[in-house]
Amino acid sequence: KAGVTQTPRYLIKTRGQQVTLSCSPISGHRSVSWYQQTPGQGLQFLFEYFSETQRNKGNFPGRFSGRQFSNSRSEMNVSTLELGDSALYLCASSLLAGGPTDTQYFGPGTRLTVL
Amino acid sequence: DQQVKQNSPSLSVQEGRISILNCDYTNSMFDYFLWYKKYPAEGPTFLISISSIKDKNEDGRFTVFLNKSAKHLSLHIVPSQPGDSAVYFCAAKSEGGSEKLVFGKGTKLTVNP
User: Fold this and answer.
1) Residue A45, min C-alpha distance to chain B (Å)
2) How far is CA A82 from CA A7, A13, A34, A67, B68, in A?
3) In this structure, are residues B111 and B85 in contact, taking their beta carbons and an 8 Å threshold?
4) Are A108 and B44 inside 8 Å of each other by CB?
5) Is B43 on the interface with A (CB under 8 A)?
6) How far apart are CA A92 and CA A24, in angstroms?
7) 3-state secondary structure of A83
8) B7 CB within 8 Å of a chain A CB
9) Which terminus of chain A has a lower count of CB atoms within 10 Å, N or C?
10) What is the pLDDT of residue A101?
11) B50 and B113 in contact (C-beta within 8 Å)?
């Protein structure tokens, strides 16, 4: 069974631009979550989607948004990029949303560099 | 406010010895805990988890211990191998149906041959 896939793996943008990252969950997984990893803040939760609905959102500005499609694939968008948005963006999927023992499996991440 | 803390940024052990990685949490609503291993430029790889109704879970060389009263968990790796060298993250999830994981800042483990 294929794991979580993320595209692109690497991205370079300039300040003010916008970017869209894509995530395909493990087949059959219905919940997709996004995280940002930076050296200073570690891994921080961005948002979670289940059945095309955002179920939870982390403490990030409105420039960060996402969506989920009917096939569970998800995209996240960052508008008006800032230098501080440079990070590794990780997507994770789990089989059953809300189960207490659900395990999230992570993709390889998208490394975003903002110049 | 850091709800999950890994107070040791790094740990170095000899091959064959035990590695013990520690994690403390402050939120009593957390009811499920996970350990992930991460190599640079890769996503975290799930290692082992434990529910708050248990105090120990074992999987091969990896054992996680949970002390709810102390809000403390630890990951034991026995015996340690050079391939175990990576950054280890402790993560916690709270009841209520959300998949949100709260991560510690990680501990870099180096296993010396």
Assistant:
1) 7
2) 21, 10, 19, 21, 41
3) yes
4) no
5) yes
6) 9
7) helix
8) no
9) N
10) 67
11) no
Beta strand B86-94 with B107-112 is antiparallel
Q: What is the pLDDT of residue A98?
A: 57
Nearest to A43 among B89, B93, B97 (CB): B89
Please indicate whether, in this complex, the C-beta atoms of B43 and A107 are within 8 angstroms of each other. Answer: yes
Residue ranges in chain B modelled with pLDDT below 70: 96-97
**pLDDT (tens digit, 9 = 90+) per residue, A55-110?**
889 999 999 999 999 999 999 999 999 999 999 999 999 986 556 667 889 999 99
Q: What per-residue confidence (pLDDT) applies to A102?
A: 76
The answer to whether the Cβ–Cβ distance between B42 and A42 falls below 8 Å is no
Residue B23 backbone class (left: φ over 0; alpha: ψ -120 to 50; beta: rest): beta
Q: Decide if B57 contacts B46 (C-beta within 8 A).
A: no
Chain A residues lying within 8 Å of B91, measured CB to CB: 43
